[in-house]
Amino acid sequence: MEELDSEPTVTLIPGVNSKKKQMCFDWGPGEMLVCETSFNKKEKSETVPGCPFIYIIRKDIDVYSQILRKLFNESHGIFVGLQRIEEELTGKSRKAQLPCFLSLQDAPCSCCMSFHFCRLVRVSKNYRSVIRACMEEMHQAAIAAKDPASGRQFSSQVSILSAMELIWNLCEILFIEVAPAGPLLLHLLDWVRLHVCEVDSLLADVLGSENPSKHESFWNLVTILVLQGRLDEARQMLSKEADVSPTSAGMCRILGDLMRTMPVLSPGNTQTLTELELKWQHWHEECERHLQDGTFASSPHLESLCKIMLGDEAALLEQKELLNNWYHFLVTRLLYSHPTVKPIDLHFYAQSSLDLFLGGESSPEPLDNILMAAFEFDIHQVIKECSIALSNWWFVAHLTDLLDHCKLLQSHNLYFGSNMREFLLLEYASGLFAHHRPSRLSSDCCSLWQLGVDYFDYCPELGRVSLELHIERIPLSTEQKALKVLRICEQRQMTEQVRSICKILAMKAVRNNRLGSALSWSIRAKDAAFATLVSDRFLRDYCERGCFSDLDLIDNLGPAMMLSDRLTFLGKYREFHRFYGEKRFCDAASLLLSLMTSQIAPRCFWVTLLTDALPLLEQKQVIFTTEQTYELMRCLEDLASGRPVRGEPGAQRLQEDIENTKLEMLRLALARNLARAIIKEGSLEGS
Amino acid sequence: MEEIYAKFVSQKISKTRWRPVPPGSLQTAETFATGSWDNEENYVSLWSIGDFGNVDSDGGFEGEHQLLCDIKHHGDVMDLQFFDQERIVAASSTGCVTVFLHHPNNQTLSVSQQWTTAHYHTGPGSPSRSSAPCTGVVCDNPEIVTVGEDGRINLFRADHKEAVRTIDNADSSTLHAVTFLRTPEILTVNSIGQLKIWDFRKQGNEPSQILSLTGDRVPLHCVDRHPNQQHVVATGGQDGMLSIWDVRQGTMPVSLLKAHEAEMWEVHFHPSNPDHLFTCSEDGSLWHWDASTDVPEKSSLFNQGGRSSTFLSHSISNQANVHQSLISSWLSTDPAKDRIEITSLLPSRTLSVNSLDVLGPCLVCGTDAEAIYVTRQLFS
Hints:
Chain A: Component of the nuclear pore complex (NPC). The complex is a heterodimer of chains A (687) and B (380). Chain A has 31 helices and three strands. Chain A is mostly helical and 687 residues long. Chain A starts with 22 loop residues before the first strand and ends with a helix. Chain B has 380 residues and is mostly beta strands. The relative contact order of chain B is 0.13.
C-alpha cells in the first residue's frame, strides 16, 4: 500500500447533522449514497426529526457543465486521432481509413527531429487549444451570468481550466518538446507570457491614453514588459517617455540601447551556445558598469529596470506584485541571470525561486507542488498531484495517454489492474458512462457513453471487459438507440452482449404485443428458443382468429426460417395457405403431408392440419394419391391412438365429442378419397 | 468543399433541417432547425448562418452558425420537419408529435399544437397504453404523416385536433421513415427491408404495393424521393447500402450501391439539383454522390471517336432529350453507375452522423460527437 499523501478533505453535506446523527453510506460507480440512520449515539433518543433524504455524493460534478461537454467531445476526436497515429506507425491499422485531420495538417517541418515527434507536439497543442477555447467560453459565461453564485461558479471553472492549461503547457515544454538549453528558456518565456496576459490589456489602455508616459500605470507597464523579456516593446515605451521629458531622454536612450543589444537566441540563428554565452557575458558586464557608474542614479524607475536586467534578486522581489507568482519570478530570473539554463538544473532554480518568492510567509499550494514536480521532471508526481487536486479525470487521463505515446511512462506499473495510462483512461471512460445515469431512474438520460466506448477500445488489458459490463447497462429507450449500441457490440464481436440486447428488445416487443418485431429481433439474435416461443404465439393467434397477422414478415422469412423448427413450420404452414389461396392444390397437399410426415409440425397442431386437408379431400378432382391418402390415414390413426381416453364429465366431455366427430368426418373423407384415387389411378393405368 | 464550419453544441444532434425558402424568392438558406437526443433534457433549436456575427460578436466569427432560440422537447427528437416557414413538426420518442411555432419578432419558439399519444403500444390483454417512439414524420401542408415503432401510420391535419386517418398495425415491424410519393400516396420503409406504398384513398390496412430487398431482410432506415421523377426513390439500409428503386416497375431495387460501413441514417436528393445525392451514416461519414454527366469528359469522349460507343450513343440521347438524361442518371445501368463520383465531405471520422439536409448550395449535418457542421459552398 502507498501511504496517504495528505489529509482527506472534509465535505459537509447540507442538511445532515453528523454531530447528532450517525450516517451510513454505500459506494457506487463514481458516486456514493449517504443517509442518516436512526441509530443513536449512546444517549437516549432525543427524537430529533431526522433528515428524510438519501444523498447522492459525486466527485466529478464537472461532467454536468454544458461547456465542459465540448471539451470532452472535442478532445475525444484528438484522442482517437492520436491512437490512430500510433496504429499507423506500428502498421496495425487494418483498413485504409480516410485520412484523419491530424495527418493532413502535419507537414514535416525542419525544426524537429522526426515527423512523429512533430505530430505529438501538434497533438499536445490541439489539446491545449481545446482547453483554451473552453476557458474563453466559460469566461464569457461568467461575464454573462445573471446571478452572482453561478458567475462565481463559472469563474472558478475558468481558473481551474487555466491551471490545467498552465500545467499542460509546462509538461509539453519539458516532456514532449524536450527543449535543450537555450531554446528551453525561449519556450518558458512564451509560457509565462501566455499565462500572464493582463499586460496586453494594460498596454492597450496606456497606449490609448492621450499622454501614455503620464499614465498612472506607465512604469508598471514598462516593468512588466521587461520582466517578461518583451524588450522591444519596453524600448518603444521608453522612447515615448524620452519624447516628453528631455531631462531623462539621455538615460532612456542608454537603457534602450542596452535592451536592444541584449543577445538572445533566435530560432533561425546558427550561433552556438558558447558564442551566445560569451556575448551575453559582455552585455551583462556593460549593464553592470552603467549601474556602478550611476548612469541612472537620477531616475529610480530606470535604475530599478537596469537592476532587473542584471538579474538582481532583491530588485526582482521588489516587483512581487507585478510578477504575480513564483514561476514568473523563476523565468525572469533565469532570463537575466542564466539564459542558457540546462533542463537538468531547472529544479534547483525552481526550488530556490519558490522559497525566495514565498519567503516563508505562505505555504505552497497544490498548483505550486504540481509545477515544482514538473520542474523536477517527476512525471508520476505531476500526475499524482493533479489527480488529487482536480475534480475529474479528464486532464490526467489525456495527459498521461499523451506522455505514454512519447514513451515516457514505460516502466511504471501499478500494483493493481494494468498500467497507469490504462487505469486513468478506464476511470475517465467509466465516468462518461455514468454520466447522468444515477440522477434519474427513467431511461433516457446518459449521453456521453458513446465517447467512452473509444476510450475503452484503447485500453488493451481491461478495456474490453469494462465495455462489456458498461454496455449492457445502457438503457435502451428507442430502437434507434438500441441499434447504435448493437453496432458497437457487433463491431467488437461481443456476441454475448448482442444476444442479450436483442433478447431484451424481443421481450419488450412481446410485452407490447408486437409479435412481428419480436420475431425479427429473435432472428437477429439467432435465438432459437425465443423464435419458437414467438412462433407458438403466432400459431395460437391463428387458431383463435383463423387468420394470420404480420404476413409481410412471415411471407418473407427466407433462410431465417431455419432458425427453429417451429419457425420453419410457421413459414411452411403459411406457404400452404398461400398455395391453397392460389388454387395450387397439389402443391398444397404434398406440403401439408410433408409437414406431418417430417415431424416438423407439433403434435398438438395435427388436428388442425388434418382438418385443413378436408377441403382438399372434398375437391372435385382427386388431389391426394392413394399413397398420400394412406400416409394421411396413418397420421390420423397415430393421432387417435396417442390420445388419452378418459371419461371426464362436463365441458371436457363435450370437447371430446367434437374432436371425435372431427375424426369420424376425416376418416370418412379419407376413405372416399382413397376410393376415388384407386379408381382414377386404376383407370389411368388401364387406358 | 474548403469551408466547412464545425460547432460543438453540448448536445447530441439527432436531426438537422433547413427552413424552406419562400417559393420564388432568391434568398439562400440561412436558418436551420436541430433536434437533440439522449440528453437529460432535449431541445429543438433554431440556428442562423446569417452574417449577424458582426452585430453580436461574442467570440463567434463570421460564418459560424449562431443559436436563435430553443425550446425544451420531451423525449428524444426522432424526426423533424418544417411544416411551413414558421412551423416545425417534431416527432418524439415518447410517441408525441408536436408542432412548434417560431416567432421571428422576439425570437422564441412555442408549442402551437400537440398530439400526445400519436403512437402507442397496447399490451396483450390489457387496455393500458404505453407510449411507442414516433420514428418519422413528413409534411405536405396541410397534412402531416407520422410513423412509429408501433407500426402505426397517422395522418394529421394542422387544423384538426384528432388524427384524420390512422392505420393500425400497418406494419408488423418497426416503421423507420416515411415520405410522400404523390399527394394521397405515401411510402414507408421498415425494419425488415420492405418498402410499402400506401394510398390514403383506399380503406383498410393493406398497402397498395410492397417492394423488398432480397432474402436478407436488411432493415431500411431512410427514404427519399427524387424531386422531379416521383417514381425514383432512394433508400439507405442497416448495412450502409444505397438502393435506388423505380416504384413503377418490379418489386426489387434497380440498383444496389455499396456505400457506408454502418447504418445509413439519412439519404437526400438535392432538391434543385437531383443528380446529386447525399448520405450520412453511423460510421461517422457524410458522402456526396454526383451522378451528373460530366460535360468536359463527354466532349473528350467525342474526340476519342468510336471507341466508347455506348457512352457516345448515351450522350447523344442525352442531348436529344433532357428528361431522358435525368431519368437515366440514377436508373440506367452500368455506364451511368461508373460515372457516379463520390466525395467524403467531413474532414475526419467522428461519431455517427445522424442527420443531414441540403438546400441550394448549403448543407448542414449533426453528429453524436455533439457538433453541427455547415457548409455554404457545396458545389464550389
